[in-house]
Design goal:
This protein is an alpha+beta fold and 599 residues long. The strands form three sheets. Strands 3, 4, 5, 6, 7, 10 and 11 form a seven-stranded mixed beta sheet that branches. A two-stranded antiparallel ribbon has the order 1-2. Strands 8-9 form a two-stranded antiparallel sheet. Strand 8 and strand 9 form a beta hairpin. The longest helix is centred in the middle third of the chain and has 37 residues. The structure holds flavin-adenine dinucleotide. Flavin-adenine dinucleotide binds next to strand 3, strand 5 and helix 13. The site of flavin-adenine dinucleotide has 21 residues, from strand 3, strand 5 and helix 13.
Length: 599
């Protein structure tokens, strides 16, 4: 397993030089503490924790996995201690509201920490990661009493949280869920049902676990309009806030799975468990949607993390491993062979990983800044604009980054040749761990429907236009910059084609709704490559500017421009396939009768 080294220089490049985080934080309401020095100190300190405490536990977690017994779930060696250190360091409270005991830092600062945690040890990071979702729910929709009882404990990290949505028969289609909630005389509810695949549903890291559960009230309307949200603690809190008697919620078993072995994926049984309604009756899914973008961005980080960690491992290996001679003559004449980094195909793999990891970082941080503005923007107009931009970018970030992050991790394994397939090197673990990213928090197929159907076509293309306008302005600003021509011309072309393709799909989908589903994943992937083109062009512009002004970091900035060039020449052309495929129509998918799918 590669030792994780936090890419602090690149983090700084994206935050400060590309996205001007200093100005961004200064423009927010109530983000006075996010000064450059403070943010820098937090990231430096966080990097140490991730490199020294979490990274060494990554392979341990994979090997040992979690253990279930009737008394609960035991996490792998070291996980519990690492969590204790995390809590002692005050990390869980970073972005929570000050009135609930949080530090009130903008979400985008928290996301940098989540990137470092997730890259160092994704399985471990899911325990606090799920808590984050639960905290957001209570913060936004809880009553004053619920906030008082649960928030400070969760924010301090003493208690963790889960999100209990999925049931055996439904994950994407929550409209069919069956868990029930019967009102009790004291204002509480009795929750009954079985939830599956609940991440961090049971563990030994915290004294209590607060489950956020979707269930139906008696007589609730069918479908998604009849789902309510409940707070169901593992142990009932006493009046004084301490942990009281056990509630009737138990972990029936844990799943044996392909990857993320260090995270407990639990079957949770609710047998008349005591719970309390959060938010209005039958509006559970709406309440969840209010922070869905943040949760999905959190999962997008898994793609970034997989690409980054895998790149770090394969780059070191490619410089060290000797095999054959360079096609243009020996590069290591004293040695028995050349290091494999001299071979064009190995470079193709390394540069793909690098372009994916750094492009992903730019996309996540950029989207996270929109999230900051949604919550702390100074004007109503700025908040609305950012909300719409974030809504458009989030399904792209979640699905595109987990797809190409997985590809990048596979390439990392390939760079290692046969050794990549052997467990001790840890490269195959990155592939196994990354695979779930395309499934949970809305599969790629579901994100693609959200993007093309709900975000783009239902707004008559307005959400897309908001973004393509930004690209257009950038292209115009750089029209006379000769050095940028190689990036601006293809970017302009893709930006125009994106609109044309959308219009065509809008027309065909009016005649046949299946056209949306038939085109959506190609549309999403195309959109991902288009967004990356914009961000890579911007990164090249910053780097070229720094070099023109004179810099002592010539290598760093040169590599940025060269990676941008690689991206435009070798990855952006993938849009050709997606463009053709998305216009190929639904017939070639739908014509075959179901019983003709024989084998
Ligand atoms: C390790 C792990 C951890 C998880 N953690 C949690 C958790 O903490 N909390 C929680 O509630 N859930 C969790 N889940 C559940 C996860 O979110 C679901 O598995 C996921 O949403 C997919 O649902 P499903 O498994 O029911 O698949 P289905 O919904 O049955 O989908 C099967 C396939 O059909 C496709 N599909 C379905 N409907 C459509 C459509 N309309 N158009 C096109 N394609 C469609 C899907 O894209 C997918 O490819 C976890 C799952 C795993 C494996």
């Amino acid at each position: 397993m590669p030792d994780y080294k936090a890419p602090l220089r690149d983090i700084k490049f994206v935050m400060s030089e590309l996205l001007d985080s200093e100005q961004h934080y200064a423009n927010l309401e109530g983000a006075e503490d996010a000064t450059p020095d403070m943010v820098d100190a937090i990231i430096q300190e966080g990097a140490k924790f991730c490199e020294q405490v979490l990274s060494p536990l990554n392979q341990v977690g994979d090997k040992e996995g979690c253990t279930w017994s009737e008394d609960g779930v035991q996490t792998p060696t070291g996980f519990r201690d690492a969590y204790k250190k995390y809590v002692e360091g005050g990390w869980p409270s970073m972005t929570a509201a000050p009135e609930s005991g949080g530090q009130g830092l903008p979400e985008s600062v928290g996301l940098v920490m989540r990137e470092m945690i997730g890259t160092a040890n994704w399985s471990w990071g899911m325990y606090p990661g799920l808590s984050h979702g639960a905290i957001n729910t209570v913060e936004l929709h809880g009553t004053e009493q619920q906030k008082e009882t649960y928030l400070s404990k969760m924010i301090s990290g003493e208690w963790t949280g889960t999100m209990c949505l999925t049931e055996a028969h439904c994950g994407s289609d929550l409209g069919t869920l069956r868990s029930r909630a019967e009102p009790n005389a004291d204002g509480s509810y009795s929750i009954t049902g079985t939830k599956i695949f609940i991440s961090a549903g049971e563990h030994d890291m915290a004294e209590n676990i607060v489950h956020i559960v979707l269930a139906r009230l008696p007589g609730a309307p069918e479908g998604t309009k009849g789902i309510s949200l409940f707070i169901v603690p593992k142990s009932l809190p006493n009046e004084d806030g301490s942990v009281g008697e056990r509630n009737a919620v138990t972990c029936g078993s844990i799943e044996h799975k392909m990857g993320i072995h260090g995270n407990a994926t639990c079957v949770m049984n609710f047998d008349d468990a005591k719970g309390w309604l959060i938010g209005p009756e039958n509006r559970g899914l709406n309440c969840m949607f209010t922070f869905m973008n943040v949760a999905r961005l959190g999962t997008a980080i898994q793609g970034l993390g997989a690409a980054e960690l895998s790149f770090q491992g394969s780059l070191a290996y490619a410089k060290d491993r000797l095999a054959m001679r360079s096609l243009t003559g020996p590069k290591n004449p004293e040695g028995p062979a050349d290091p494999i980094i001299v071979h064009p195909d190995v470079r193709r793999m390394l540069l793909t990983q690098k372009a994916v990891a750094e492009g992903a970082r730019a996309l996540i941080y950029y989207t996270a800044q929109q999230g900051d503005i949604v919550h702390k923007g100074k004007s109503e107009e700025a908040r609305k604009e950012a909300d719409e931009l974030m809504g458009f970018l989030t399904p792209i970030a979640k699905a595109f980054l987990t797809e190409i992050g997985y590809e990048a991790s596979n390439l990392g394994m390939q760079v290692f040749g046969g050794h990549g397939f052997i467990a001790e090197w840890g490269m195959e673990q990155i592939v196994r761990d990354a695979r779930i990213g395309m499934i949970y928090e809305g599969t790629t197929g579901i994100q693609a429907l959200d993007l093309l159907g709900r975000k783009v076509l239902m707004t008559q293309g307005e959400s897309l236009k908001r973004f393509t306008k930004l690209v257009h302005v950038f292209c115009k600003e750089n029209a006379d910059n000769e050095q940028m021509r190689e990036f601006i011309e293809p970017l302009q072309a893709i930006n125009k084609e994106w609109g044309d393709l959308t219009m065509k799909l809008g027309m065909t989908s009016m005649k046949n709704r299946d056209e949306v589903g038939a085109a959506s994943v190609d549309y999403l992937m195309y959109s991902g490559y288009a967004v990356f083109a914009y961000l890579w062009a911007r990164m090249a512009q910053v780097a070229l500017g720094k070099m023109a002004d004179g810099t002592t970091e010539e290598n760093f900035y040169n590599a940025k421009v060269q990676t941008a060039r690689f991206y435009f020449k070798r990855l952006l052309p993938r849009t050709r396939t997606h463009a053709e495929s998305m216009l190929a129509g639904a017939d070639s998918l739908m014509d075959m009768q179901e019983d003709a799918f024989a084998f």
